[in-house]
Structure formats: C-alpha cells, structure tokens
Amino acid sequence: MATTNHELRVINGLIETTIDSVEGYRDAAQDVQNSTFRTMFERRASERQAAVAGLQAYVVLHGGKAEDSGTVLASAHRVFVDLRAALSKGDEAVVKEVERGEDHIKHKYEDALKDVELSPSARDTVDKAFASVRAGHDEMSRLKHGLEGLH
User: Fold this and answer.
1) 97 neighbors 20 (Cβ within 8 angstroms)
2) pTM here?
3) Integer CA distances (angstroms), 79 to 23, 53, 74, 144, 150, in order
4) H helical segments located in 89-119
C-alpha cells in the first residue's frame, strides 16, 4: 500500500504531540525539587525525543515534510501549567500535570493505531513510538497514585 497524505498527516500529528511531551517533561524536570523525579523526567524527555526522531524519519523516508515543533495549544497549556506550578510550588502538582499529559498523548496514539488507513509499516512505526508513551504513562500513573497514597 502506498503512503498516503492521510498517513503522513496522522504521523505528523503524533510528532507534534510527542514534541509537546518532550517539552512537558523538560519543563517538569525544571519545576520539581525531588532529584529522583528530575532524573526520571529527563530520561523520559530523552526517550520521547528518540520516538520523535523515529516518526520524523518515517515521514521523510516517505516523501513528506516532518513536523519539527509542538502544537500551539500545548504552548498555551504550558503557560497555564507554569502559572499553576508557580502558585502551587509542589512536586505533587507537577507530577499530576505530567500524568494528565500522559493520558492525553496515550489517547492520541491509541486513536492513531485504530486508524484503518495506516499501512502496516506506518502502524509499526507508530507502535514503536507508542512503546515509550505506554511506559511513560504507566510510570507516571504509578508515581501519581503513590504520592496520593501518602496523604
């Protein structure tokens, strides 16, 4: 099956969302006090950057122009998150925001994988990037629920 414009749009949309995730993890790493959380967020940012590179390579290989920036909506969201983090000044608040972002990106990937118009090679590329998303989502969910259990 030939690569379609639809397929490249889907993958470029995932690139934007995944770049948002990279930036979100980097922001979170700067906002937390706990060095263990900071290291975890920096590691996740690096993993997501590698996922972005894989998705971008697919788009370029198939004749498209790969996205290289996040979404406008995410920029607005980060400003709001930064404001809230500045007001709350707590690692738990940062973790909750990261976990909320993980829910968002996980749903984006799940929706893409349900797309019947994706070729097997596109689906494989998306699934490889989704491995990072799944692992990050699960880790942040456990972290958030663990922090909630401390109250």
Assistant:
1) no
2) 0.86
3) 12, 25, 9, 22, 29
4) 91-113
**Under CATH, domain 5-148 is a member of which superfamily?**
Ferritin, core subunit, four-helix bundle (1.20.1260.10)
User: How far apart are the C-alpha atoms of 67 and 87, rounded to whole Å?
Assistant: 33
For the packed helices 5-31 and 120-148, what is the interaxial angle rounded to 10 degrees?
20
- The domain locations on the chain are 5-148
Q: Going residue by residue through the chain (151 aa), what tens digit of pLDDT does each one get?
A: 456 899 999 999 999 999 988 988 998 898 888 999 999 999 999 999 999 999 999 999 999 999 987 766 655 555 445 545 544 568 888 888 888 888 889 999 999 999 999 999 999 999 999 999 999 999 999 998 888 777 6
Q: How many CB atoms lie within 10 A of CB 59?
A: 22
CB 93 within 8 A of CB 84: yes
